[in-house]
Amino acid sequence: MKQLFYFLAFGLLVSSCNNPVDKVVKLDAPVTATEAEYSKIDTSAHYEIDLVYPVIDGDFTPEILNKINNTVAEKFNEFTNQSLFIEAHQDLPSDFNTNDEDWLGILQNTYGITQCDSIVTIWFSVYQYYLGAAHGFTINHSLHFNINTGDLLNVNDFFKTDPKSLQSIKNIINNNLPDSVCWGIEADSNILKNIEDFVFSNDSLTLKIDDYALCPYAFGLTSISYPISDFTEVLSIPEFTKCVDISVAHNEAVIATH
């Protein structure tokens, strides 16, 4: 019996140490960041690219900073998918008005950084307009890091994902949409997908919303903020002591296009 007790106790200890959010600590020193920028206009292929993303710095080990920044660069290239955008403008219709150099497809983005204690969140809103499309569209992404380890966290590290909790999340979102024409989260299988891009502040939780995700395109809903107290029962993280927005120093650099 004693051996079983020690085995269970050891298992709980290992489990808790492996939880990437367990190492969240009070905010001591915020991260700093500089901005990498890549811009290009190709009038012959009729497209414009204007992309920016942050490079995280601060009083942390080089290993942690490299781990975070390598992940940011890799994920950002995945989010923006520049090669697909460029390829779409290489084979324009033969009757395309090539004299109209002001008619350009657009790939651009905005971003922001928030640090809540030792959790750093970087969110991206990527806007794409392909020539020939009726309009452009925006897709949102967020990356969450534990600055103590450099680990990339996911939605399951922050939210309880048992069936009861997921239904509570769905009800919170659907009951607080800004307009009656919004259809909200309709299928249970879409609950996690619709909450995976989020940003914490001291007293609120903001969901970043893709076009068409919850409402008709015309309503242009890009984010919804809720009191963080609404989600208390479905969050699996310790309460943050302080959240701050991180300002970014502009330092022009080339973004890789691979």
Quick recap of the structure?
By secondary structure, the protein is of the alpha+beta class. The chain has five helices and eleven strands.
Descriptive report:
- By secondary structure, this protein is α+β, with helices and mostly antiparallel strands.
- It has two domains: 22-157 and 239-258, Fervidobacterium nodosum Rt17-B1 like (Heat Shock Protein 90, 2-Layer Sandwich); 159-236, Heat-shock cognate protein, ATPase (Actin, Chain A, domain 4), CATH 3.90.640.
- Residues 1-17 have low confidence and may be disordered.
- It is 23% helix and 29% strand.
In CATH, the homologous superfamily of the largest domain goes by the name Fervidobacterium nodosum Rt17-B1 like
Number of domains: 2
Q: Approximately what portion of the residues adopt beta-strand conformation?
A: 25-35%
The biggest beta sheet, please? Answer: 8 strands, mixed
- Catalogue the unreliable spans: 1-17
Order of helices and strands: HEEHHEEEEHHEEEEE
* Secondary-structure class: alpha+beta
How many E strands? Answer: 11
CATH architecture of the largest domain: 2-Layer Sandwich
Helical coverage, percent range: 10-25%
The best one-word shape is: flat
Number of contiguous helices: 5
How much is the radius of gyration in Å? 21 Å
Distance from N terminus to C terminus (CA atoms, Å) equals 57 Å
Mean pLDDT: 85
* CATH topology title of the largest domain: Heat Shock Protein 90
CATH classification, class level of the largest domain: Alpha Beta
